[in-house]
Amino acid sequence: xxxxxxxxxxxxxxxxxxxxxxxxxxxxxxxxxxxxxxxxxxxxxxxxxxxxxxxxxxxxxxxxxxxxxxxxxxxxxxxxxxxxx
Length: 85
Known about the structure:
The structure is a single chain. The protein is mostly helical. The chain has a domain at 25-75. Helices cover 85% and strands 0% of the residues. It has 2 helices and no strands. 0% of the residues are buried.
């Protein structure tokens, strides 16, 4: 029984020692955590911007292709175009 009590007290003291950090260490840990979070947010924002740029480029490419197809169809169907020579 004494061994169990001694172990329980030792575990409790170890837990308290871990929680009782110096104020400077807590501030340093907070600074580190905030910097890590900011860096993660930057990466996520860059990924989102890249995805949006790719989607916009694909939409613009699709619109350009559709306009070219429509102009070519108009020429094939005998419609007058402003670019005809």
